[in-house]
């Protein structure tokens, strides 16, 4: 990862040799052709967005991308995690074929993680792979899903079970877009921000404890700093382990429990970030029971998650088997062994596959319900 201060925007890079790409962060990126146009593969451009984001930002992005004889089209999908399906991706492919777009086209994902994951997967498969650019508009997508090339859709039996690694050409983050984001979605994004502090950076964790009110109050400087630090940590991990053979799995802290909550509740009823927030608390509790976190550490994690506006309990209706059924399908598992991401201390995580089954079961029984 490298940083540069030469442009008016803050810039990092994901270092993947020939597929190295920039992450630009700043206000007004949507209106800056020089931020966007250099990453287009040719004159055919398909913006993929949804019914909520389109009225807010589509016309501005189209204006910025138009000119120089470019053919800029759009496909506007319905909104929601429940729409993250192959059927939605087929609508993107249909639009590309109807427009007669060829291998030199570029897909531009304008929206949150649902749009980014689907547009990326559509790009990975269309004519065996075309260019795509991420323009993430939620905090969660700006700090996590737009970076690193994980793309895909959900299956009724499990989240993100169908997908591909396909890196974008650039990630262009317009921090102004956060002004229209509902507070609940901002909190969901903060879950992934907290995750970076917990797994890798205790100084960042302490910074988050101090700056949480500013972040929730949409303080632009605090948000920009949080986005930059989060993207820097993610970029570094992805550059070392693009296809999750090892360290990248640490980015899944809380996700094994969280995915079970999302699947059980019906996709979209608990936001992904909310489920990750509660899931991180479950992982921290297990880490404490293994003797790795102190009571004070645990209290800090709980206070931080709560102060971000995230749930600290899990759904009352979820029994042990409801958790385990989804957890057994987790992509991190090897053979029949459940692998969890736990905290060896605050600011350091590990992959652990030796949790005693009775300890896990006790956690799943005893964790507070609401
Ligand atoms: P989302 O894409 O559903 O967006 C949340 C809501 O905010 C939606 O209703 C959306 O239309 C709306 N929205 C988006 N931008 C807005 C704006 N600027 N103003 C107002 N409303 C806006 O959810 P998300 O939290 O962005 O992403 C969650 C998804 O990301 C999940 O499917 C998750 O699996 C995926 N994810 C992927 C990765 C990855 O590495 N690929 C990492 C983390 C999460
Ligand atoms: N959000 C997990 C990853 O990108 O690996």
UniProtKB/TrEMBL annotation:
Reported cofactor(s): Co(2+); Zn(2+); NAD(+)
Q: Which residues form the 3-dehydroquinate synthase C-terminal domain?
A: 189-333
Name the Enzyme Commission number(s) assigned to this protein.
4.2.3.4
Q: Where does NAD(+) bind?
A: 79-84, 113-117, 137-138, 150, 159, 177-180
Q: Which GO terms describe its biological process?
A: amino acid biosynthetic process; aromatic amino acid family biosynthetic process; chorismate biosynthetic process
Where can this protein be found?
Cytoplasm
Where do the annotations place Zn(2+) binding? 192, 255, 272
**What does the record say about how the cofactor binds?**
Binds 1 divalent metal cation per subunit. Can use either Co(2+) or Zn(2+).
Which CDD domains does this one have?
DHQS
Q: Which Gene3D superfamilies match?
A: 3.40.50.1970, Dehydroquinate synthase-like - alpha domain (1.20.1090.10)
Reaction equations catalysed: 7-phospho-2-dehydro-3-deoxy-D-arabino-heptonate = 3-dehydroquinate + phosphate
**What GO terms are given for molecular function?**
3-dehydroquinate synthase activity; metal ion binding; nucleotide binding
Recorded GO cellular component terms are: cytoplasm
Q: Does the keyword Amino-acid biosynthesis apply?
A: yes
Q: Which NCBIfam families match?
A: aroB (TIGR01357)
**Family per UniProt?**
Belongs to the sugar phosphate cyclases superfamily. Dehydroquinate synthase family.
Annotated function:
Catalyzes the conversion of 3-deoxy-D-arabino-heptulosonate 7-phosphate (DAHP) to dehydroquinate (DHQ).
Which protein are we looking at?
3-dehydroquinate synthase
The protein's organism comes out as Chromohalobacter japonicus
Please name the gene that encodes this protein: aroB
């Amino acid at each position: 990862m490298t940083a540069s201060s030469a442009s008016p925007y803050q810039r990092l890079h994901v270092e993947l040799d020939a597929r190295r790409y920039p992450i630009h962060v700043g206000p007004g990126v949507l209106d800056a052709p020089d931020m966007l146009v250099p990453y287009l593969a040719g004159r055919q451009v398909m913006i993929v967005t949804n019914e909520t984001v389109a009225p807010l930002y589509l016309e501005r992005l189209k204006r910025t991308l138009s000119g120089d004889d470019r053919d800029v089209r759009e496909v506007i999908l319905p909104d929601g995690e429940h729409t993250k399906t192959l059927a939605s991706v087929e609508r993107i492919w249909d639009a590309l074929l109807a427009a007669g777009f060829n291998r030199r086209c570029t897909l531009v994902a304008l929206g949150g993680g649902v749009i980014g994951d689907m547009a990326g997967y559509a790009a990975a498969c269309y004519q065996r792979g075309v260019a795509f650019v991420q323009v993430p508009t939620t905090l969660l997508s700006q700090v996590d899903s737009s970076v690193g090339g994980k793309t895909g859709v959900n299956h009724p039996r499990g989240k993100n079970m169908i997908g591909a690694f396909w890196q974008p050409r650039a990630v262009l983050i317009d921090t102004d877009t956060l002004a229209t984001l509902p507070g609940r979605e901002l909190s969901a994004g903060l879950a992934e921000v907290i995750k970076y502090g917990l797994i890798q950076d205790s100084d960042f964790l302490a910074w988050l404890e101090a700056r949480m009110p500013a972040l929730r109050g949409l303080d632009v400087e605090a948000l920009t700093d949080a986005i930059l630090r989060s993207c820097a940590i993610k970029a570094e991990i992805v550059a070392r382990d693009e296809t999750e053979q090892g360290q990248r799995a640490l980015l899944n802290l809380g996700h094994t429990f969280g995915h079970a909550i999302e699947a059980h509740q019906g996709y979209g009823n608990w936001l992904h970030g909310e489920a990750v927030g509660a899931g991180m608390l479950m992982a921290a509790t297990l880490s404490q029971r293994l003797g790795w976190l102190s009571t004070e550490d645990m209290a800090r994690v709980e206070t931080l998650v709560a102060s971000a506006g995230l749930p600290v309990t899990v759904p009352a209706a979820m029994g042990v088997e409801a958790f385990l059924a989804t957890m057994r399908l987790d992509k991190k598992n090897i053979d029949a062994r459940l692998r969890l991401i736990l905290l060896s201390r605050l600011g350091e995580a590990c992959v652990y596959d030796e949790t005693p089954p009775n300890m896990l079961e006790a956690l799943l029984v005893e964790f507070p319900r609401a």
